[in-house]
Write a structure and sequence with these properties.
The protein has 436 residues and is of the alpha/beta class. The protein has 16 helices and eight strands. It is 40% helix and 10% strand. The protein has an eight-stranded parallel beta barrel, surrounded by six helices. Helix 14 crosses helix 15. Bound molecules: 3-hydroxy-3-carboxy-adipic acid (HCA) and copper (II) ion (CU). 3-hydroxy-3-carboxy-adipic acid (HCA) binds next to strand 4, strand 5 and strand 6.
């Protein structure tokens, strides 16, 4: 495994029919759930756990902020990369991509930090031109071409993507005018629906148009959920031939977010598009959603298809029928996506955060994170007791009650932190603070 020089990983990588570019640690960190960037953010340990879970799930491309966005991001990168390096022997190589403006400052910082590739973006829509950077299409082309040509010459090992930001509000002919002179220098062309305007028929026709014009360059699509269409648009893009798509865990991202990774796989599975599932551990879908929910101190949202809510039956008639045979009200194989108690606890990702979630959120124990870690260690040591007489859930509850003497929480969750939503300027903070 270590025989290849570091530089050669991408040129030797055989891309699968569908490559997820996970952006939980870039787009995801722009979620309004973490809206006050000084108070709420992923700790380094959160980031490492999220990356580890993604790699174990089978994700090979992970997008992170450019290191010059903030000193915290810059410092965290080396420790995040160490997790990737640890898992190379077990899971193969995972490419860490820096999300950068088409600007030498971002690009140099990312290369210096040691990223494997650059996800470069440059606003191409009339709105971006007018209100974002003020450059004409000709100016966009000439500065992007100079930068990409240089990059290709001096850093052939990097995997490069160029995206026209706000691509779905960019007329197709302008987009092609920009991409035509750049395509020879990049490994992927991106088409982000930055403000969430696209509808599935437009997606299909655009993906087809780009596939025809650039048959040797894979496409990377990215959809925001402003209209609630991100998932549908992503499915259409994949079916029309987009080999790379950007997703996050639980779909978190700017405003209403982007496509949730597990919801995409769940849908492709239901539609029997098995080729696109190659290399992904679908059974870890629910555990990985729980991992992210736990980081956000919330539950897996009810609208997330791979959620416990989707298997929870409330009406008496439904409950009775499901006990007879779950097929009556459960059309989809959620258990294959890990939505079962067994898998929550015994799946490959049953780390302390899953234990914490199970005891605190499902069973209402008063338990802090440190105790959850200790209970987890004890639970793992005791797993030899799982000989068929006792379920994992029972064992864990017994340990919590009898060995750790944990009490059930008496306070209703009303003392939870209140998030006040205000529409004044102070609340609309920009997450990216770097200036050219
Ligand atoms: C952003 C916007 C972006 C970029 C996507 C891309 C979008 O937050 O900078 O680089 O392809 O939606 O356009 O997320
Ligand atoms: Cu985005």
């Amino acid at each position: 495994m270590n025989a290849l020089p570091v530089n050669d990983w991408f040129r030797h990588y055989q891309a699968r029919p569908l490559e997820i570019v996970d952006s939980s640690l870039r787009e995801g960190q722009q979620t309004s759930l973490l809206h006050d960037h000084y108070k709420y953010y992923f700790t380094l340990q959160d980031k490492q756990e999220i990356l580890r879970s993604l790699i174990l799930y089978g994700v090979k491309f992970v997008e992170l902020f450019a290191p010059n966005v903030s000193s915290r991001e810059a410092e965290d990168f080396q420790a995040i990369r160490a997790i990737r390096d640890e898992l190379v022997v077990q899971k193969g190589y995972t490419f860490l991509l820096a999300h950068v403006r088409c600007h030498p400052k971002d690009v140099e910082a990312a290369i210096h930090a040691g990223f494997d590739g650059l996800n470069i973006y440059f606003g191409t829509s009339p709105q971006s031109q007018a209100f974002n950077h003020g450059k004409t299409v000709d100016e966009i082309i000439s500065s992007a071409r100079t930068l990409l040509e240089d990059l290709r010459r001096n850093h052939p090992e990097l995997t490069l993507r160029f995206s026209g930001e706000d691509a779905f509000r960019t007329p197709l002919d302008s987009l092609l005018r920009v991409y035509d002179p750049l395509v020879e220098f990049v490994d992927r062309l991106g088409m982000p629906d930055t403000v969430g305007v696209a509808r599935p028929p437009v997606v299909t026709s655009r993906v087809r148009a780009l596939r025809e014009r650039y048959p040797h360059t894979p496409l990377e699509l990215h959809f925001h959920d402003d209209r609630g269409l991100a998932l549908m648009n992503t499915i259409e893009a994949v079916l029309a031939g987009a080999q790379f798509v950007d997703t996050t865990l639980l779909g978190i991202g700017e405003r209403s977010g982007i496509t949730s990774m597990t919801s995409l796989f769940f849908n492709l599975f239901i539609d029997q598009q098995y080729d696109f599932l190659e290399g992904y551990t679908l059974r870890s879908s629910y555990p990985i959603n729980v991992t992210m929910a736990d980081k956000l101190k919330t539950l897996v949202p009810p609208k997330e298809p791979v959620s416990l809510t989707n298997r929870t039956h409330t009406a008496g008639v439904h409950q009775g029928a499901v006990l007879n045979d779950s097929v009556s009200y459960e059309a989809h194989p959620l258990d294959l996506f890990g939505v079962s108690e067994q898998d929550i606890l015994l799946g490959p990702l049953s780390g302390w955060n899953v234990v914490h979630y199970f005891l605190k959120e499902i069973n209402y124990f008063d338990i802090d994170e440190d105790t959850a870690r200790q209970v987890t260690a004890h639970f793992k040591d005791s797993s030899s007791q799982l000989n068929g007489d006792i379920s994992a859930a029972e064992l864990l509850l017994r340990i919590a009650r009898d060995e750790f003497h944990l009490q059930k929480s008496t306070s209703a969750p009303t003392d939870a932190l209140q998030i006040v939503q205000r529409m004044d300027k102070r609340n609309i903070q920009l997450s990216k603070t770097q200036e050219p």
